[in-house]
Structure formats: C-alpha cells, structure tokens
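User: Sequence in, structure out. Go.
Assistant: Echoing your sequence, followed by the structure tokens.
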Amino acid sequence: MHGLGNDFVVIDARFEPFSVDSVKARALANRNTGIGCDQLIIMEPTKDENAIIFMKIINSDGTEVSACGNATRCIARLILEEFGLKEVTLQTKSGLIKAHPTYANSSNYTVDMGPVNYDWQKVPLAYECDTNHLPLSYGKLRDPIAVNVGNPHIVFFVDDLDAVKISHVGPILEHNELFPERTNVGFAKVIDKNNLILRVWERGAGLTQACGTGACAAVVNAHRRNLTDRKATVKLDGGNLDIEWLTNDHVMMTGPTEISYRGSFEEQQFEFDQNNE
C-alpha cells in the first residue's frame, strides 16, 4: 500500500504470528533484492480493549518507530473495509489513534494523530532549550523548530527548497547530538496562510515521497511561528495532505490511500546471515 507514494509492505499477523528482527526487516524493505518499501507495517493483535489491532511500524533501516501518518490511513482503510465500520481505533507505540473515511465511498481517510508535544523533554532533545528556536544550524540552514507528533520532528522554513541538498544534510541533521532518538527533518516553504510545500528526510527511511507526521509537524510549527493558520494544505512530492491543528492540540490529517497489490512470499528467501548485514 502507499499514501502519496510513501509505500508500505503490510503483513497481517493477527492470526499467525510473524517474527521480525532488524535484519529481516531490512531484507524485506530492500528495493533491489526484497519486496521494497519505506516502512514495514505488521498488523498484530492488540492488548488494549479500546483498539481493534496493534500496528507495528518498522523503518527500512530496521528500526521500530512509534508513528507513521500515511501508514495509519492505509491500515485504517483495510480494517474499516474488512469490518464495515464507520470509525476505527488503532493502537501504536505512541498511543491510540482514531480514523474514519473522509466521506462516503472514498479512498481518502482522516486520522486523529493525537496531541502534539513541544516540550523539550518530550521531543526529546538532549538538553533544555526553546523548541520554537533550536540552537542548530548547518550552512545556510538556521533556526529550526521542533515538535513531537508521535515521533520527533524538526522543520526548517526556507525560501528555496531546490537549493537545499536534502540527501546530504538530512542524515547529518538526523543524527545530530541534540536528538538522542534521532529526528525527522522537514524543509518547508510557506506559500500563504493556508498552503506550504514540504520535503522530509525521514528518520530511518531517508527522503520519501510523502511524510504524514512530517506534514502535521510542518503545519503545527508554521502556526507556532505565525506563518500559517491552524488549517493548511501541505504539498509533498507525492501529492497533498490537508492538516488541521485543533485547539485541543490534536492534529487531524486527511489524505488518500492506495492498495498496490496483494500477495504472499516465503520467509526464508529473505533471510540471511546475521553477520552479513
């Protein structure tokens, strides 16, 4: 499945367990020798009576993360279509997330990504500082702003996105010592109060076609800087997401979902020696 080109291998492990480590995850995500994806999503039984499934999210580098906006929409679609529901609650490492179709007979889904957090300890940062103006710069990139939307994000607001060599600066900033859990790095250009353009270097996945939590972070941070309204459309390489930061701090994300294909595979063909990573 994919949301605006941010693509996922989704494995249904609700009835038959699927064990995965970082080596196996990287093998499955490899676009040359595996199936290929930005993130591996595993649907597992939930222990929370308020949720219908647990959604495990593993980046293409084999690291498990707490949230993924585009994947949440995709999994919500699968479950809602399966059970004929009008709304679904999913469990993730970052908490419970609710989703529903944006309107009837639509492949667009709206997800309540929950409340954002811009306390420095919750982002998290390595030491106390103003998350609205981080003491971080790289070349001409200066004055980023940080927020946690289920996972850590920083955003640089720039005038010329094409001038930023994201594939070069992204991994450097992702691993900066200010971020003990690494960070997603967004680069945004504000068009007007209701529109901005965004590219995101995703922690553990690299530059992707779209990043749902990154779009949420961009609008939240743009509004914190008085650059946009609380509701804005975010244009990503793969398409548009509509984001609204509610006054209760919850962020609503609306966008499309697509099923690329369904299939099966033999696990052993993707396994390899742990020492040959």
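User: And one key feature?
Assistant: Helices lie at 22-29, 69-83, 166-174, 212-224.
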